[in-house]
Specification:
The chain is of the alpha+beta class and about 100 residues long. It has four helices and four strands; from the N terminus they run H-E-E-E-E-H-H-H.
Amino acid sequence: MTSNEKVYEAEFTTAEQIINEWLDKHKLAAKAVSNTLLDDAPIKHSLTHFHWYLTPRKLTIDAKQINELNEKLSAAEIAFKWLTQQKAQDSLGLPRAMEKIIER
């Protein structure tokens, strides 16, 4: 990172807080997408005024866990939508960096 690049830490959204607490409670942790350079070196994706540093991780949960997590999110009046890889690619305007992660 060069000296003029700033790393901004945003507060977690309510949804992110709920999901992180749920993952901690169930002792679930996302694993690296692959055993390549991605494990130690984040992907850098530059936008007009800032840079993203992405470290791809993957977590598999079952239908029961999805329902439980959806209930927690709904209780906080958060509408959360689960998408398949194909639906995400077809329906969301994803930056190229995110498309690369989804393709893995």
